[in-house]
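Data availability (excerpt). All sequences and predicted token strings are deposited with the supplementary files. A representative entry, SDR family oxidoreductase, is shown inline so that the format can be inspected without opening the archive.
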Amino acid sequence: MKLASRMAAVVTGGASGLGHASVRALAGAGLKVAIFDINTDDGPAIAASVGGTFHHVDITDEQSVVDGFAAARAAHGQERVTVHCAMASRRGKTVGFDKETGGYKRLSTQDFAFGTEGILVASYRVASHSALGMANAEPLNEDGERGSIILTASVAAQDGQIGQVIYGSAKAGVNGMVLPMARDLMDLGIRVNSIMPGIFATPLMLGMKDRNPAMWNQLNASVPFPKRLGDPDEFGSLVLELARNTYFNGQCLRLDGAIRMPPR
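Structure token line:
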């Protein structure tokens, strides 16, 4: 898919981290980017800096997502690239020791359902609403392509650690959705892929550099090569390639410097 100037794109979670890197990459390629985020402190300024728009969207709320797409399309036209980075989750062991009672406690079903809603259900919500809009648009090329949807999974989908039973299983669910969704949408010319990032130097992780330099150095050393955390711009670079390369479809790609996460 040729990323033409002023083609429309949507990035969820675009006000920080990997989402922000995706915004920069897409805007740098000439696309008009709509940011969906609940971060009203940084989101509007980031959108303005790339000539895009900001939309306060809660990915766990159906109407909020519907309204967000409507507003983004009114501003830029039908999106042809959607990158979903936003998420909401909780963590905890399936059964863990409770210091307050001196016994064991179970991770609640409500906590598990919250993470499933904030990761897996939200991924379906964003992808399916975007796909519906793309389906009604004209094809972009001789292949009949109408758009590219890129979901964010995690290496935890394959290497879930202790305390990641919610996160790991929900991210695995995102990967599990990619191929059947790509097949659902194949006759419409809409591609679906996911990226599984490893440990990236997002603002959240960079805070550790000063708080706990020993842990920071340990994390960098744990990556086989290059021996550092991922640069968010490297995530943005892969987003561009997945959007551009029409033969990428139904794929779940690790972007992790060959790291394999230990149990803890």
